[in-house]
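thread from #wetlab-drylab

HS: before we spend reagent money on co-crystallization trials with zinc ion, can we at least see a predicted complex? here's what I'd submit
DV: go for it
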Amino acid sequence: MKNSQNKIFVIITLIFFMNFGYSQTDEIKIKFIGNCGMYLTDGNINLYVDFPYKSGAHKYMKYDENQLYNISENSIFLFTHKHKDHYSKKLVRKMKKKYNGKIYDNWNVNKLDDLNNTLNNFSIKAIKTPHSFTFKHYSYLITWHNKKIYFTGDTGSLEAINGVKNIDWLFTNPWLFMNAKSKKIKIDTKMIGLYHLYPNQKIEGEIPKNMMILKKENEIITIANNQ
Ligand SMILES: [Zn+2]
């Protein structure tokens, strides 16, 4: 009896230190899954944007279905809108049920304020942006410590993003990027991740030095907290 109690104590201590160690990481990891599907974690908070979507929908990227397992309990799921290449009703339901996922989509973004009050070092802001064939579409600005990470989703409009200064990483689609380029509008961002490409899509013209083309599933971007 005593032995097994000891064992349990050791295991609990180990789990405690493992979690503690992990929560002290001073960086955020951003993993590209496919389309606008991204996963962010700083070791404490697990956040998905536009995932899970319907793999291969509208001839866009497929993803390894293992992405749907290994999901941390209480993960947060943000959706820009509900087109199938961004959102799967069936899979989202599963995330909610199986992993106690917190779901925020274009119909309940008003609840993000309550969520923000519970988050450490994170804040999530939904910005209403236009996109055809949907009533509501939101871009998201995520602030982690002093780092700004912006996800445009499917909008091609520059209006909202023009008001955002000092972005660290901007994740945007080719049509918004081309729109900015043709209008010679400079977006105030250090880095750009170009997402939502067709599997064989090529980007024409010069690729800016600060741009990363996201076509490879599981590509990871790390941002250090150096504030
Ligand atoms: Zn789309």
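DV: The helical segments are 2-23, 89-99, 112-116, 159-162, 174-182.
HS: ok that's useful, forwarding to the group
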